[in-house]
Fold this protein.
Amino acid sequence: MNFRFPKKEKLKSKKTIERLFSEGKTLKKFPVRVNYIPVENYETCKAAFVVPKRNFKLAVDRNRIKRQLKEAYRLHKHLLNNRSGVKFALLFIYLGGKKLSYQEIEKSMVNLLNRLTNETD
RNA sequence: AUUGCAAGUCGACUCAUCGUUCUAUUGGUGCUUAUCGCCUUUAGGAAGGAAAGUCCGGACACCAUAGGGAAGCAUAGCGGCUAACAGCCGUCGUCCGCAUUAAGCGGUAUAGGACAAGUGCAACAGAAAGAAUGUACAGGUAAUGCUGUAGUGAAAUCAGGUAAACUCUAUGCGGUGAAAUGCCACGUAAACUUGCGCUUGAGAGUUCCCGCUCGAUGCAAGAGGGUAGGCAGAUAGAGUUUGUUGGUAACAACAAACCCAGAUAAAUGAUGAGAAACUUGACCAACAUCAAGUUACAGAAUCCGGCUUAUAGACUUGCAAAAAAG
């Protein structure tokens, strides 16, 4: 099982991210929402993580939540390997207004990844 | 040894598992070449005292080798430090506190030039703090606050106070800001519409005027598209530590040793266990033990020097205070 999360699995294209906001489908499981679109020419799924500045004023808090989201994704991304082999661009957005424990974030992440796999099969 | 105040120093440890980024490195691999890319082995580095606020000052880059004037901004005893400053050090004055016959001692206080030009402002008291008005007594006049005294007040047609009031004086300041700037790659388009202009000069040089320079495959606006990737800038520096010398000090000089983040939708972590400190509760004469909780402020973004603000806890030094013991 590959738990690594190198640079090429990070979503960086501004254009793709704008498309995710405008035309991406969404799944929600508090406190996390995911926007996703299938992308044909990707070798792997790519993911980005967002914590709104509106909810968390301090950079330290935003960094910590992003790290926790990243960690949850890294340890559970294998759930996404579906039969069709379609790859996705993913944008995880933290909706909560408070800091939550890692266990709660992990639970939401597993839930989301499972639902995403089922819906796209 | 307790509490309070002030100054300074530090400001998050250990292990396990799974990861991120940079540098070096082992082995492999990729149409061609490769100093390049990818996979991989090992080793090492990886946030702060404020990284914050973006308030000052610089370095650096570009714009006329940055010129004259206006406007604007900043500074304000004196001397020094510094690359520079609105910073720091020293000192004088003022203010506050303590003490004394007096000299003096201390301070986390102090934007501290000019009210000898003009304008403005001023509590209470007072008739009146000035284009106004006139109380009492005395003197004087043709007549009148015309004169003196009293009275109010810090100050009364004699002026004074106030410039973190306008202002004046002296000194300094060109503008922009790492999204600067240079190069490479990709891409379309020297495309379309409208307006202006082509030496009788549109427009640009980032407040305005003058001047100077550039300027025609030009400039401005619109609609619709493309790109938004890489390298340099950019991490060895006004660098850090230690020592010696000079100086009251800020600081400087010299010597030795050291290399200490370099990301870019943004790395430096996540999870678990433990240790430590503190608080509360249980038990207890007390220690110990057990349980629960807390462990701050906060995340580099071109780089330095300051300032300001936030900060749990630990340690050091100084001052003050009460009680107990000796």
Notes: The helical segments of chain A are 14-23, 59-76, 102-120.
